[in-house]
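t-SNARE coiled-coil homology domain-containing protein
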Amino acid sequence: MIFGFRDRNARVALFDGIEEGGIRASSSYSSHEIDEQENDRAIDGLEDRVLMLKRLSGDIHGEVESHNLMLDGMGNDMDASRGVLSGTMDKFKMVFETKSSRRMFTLVASFVVIFLVIYYLTR
């Protein structure tokens, strides 16, 4: 509900002074004559709003570009990690297939111990 109120206020601020049929005509003139000063003020107001929207859209574009670059970098890092993990798993498979069960247990136990030591040292 708050967003609707803000959106309405933003819309009113953006299109303030503009009616459906165009720019409001001065009440002292006939319907065919438009007050030049009011017209100039309305044009200046529109120009300011257009510039504000242009800056806003440029800021949004910059954010989108930076997020795309960040996501591309993360995707490349994930691909590299996947390649390293795949190579490691292939080596584990080769070791487990060629060695005896006792050596396999020793290898796994040593990796677990090394992992725990590194974990406690980094904490």
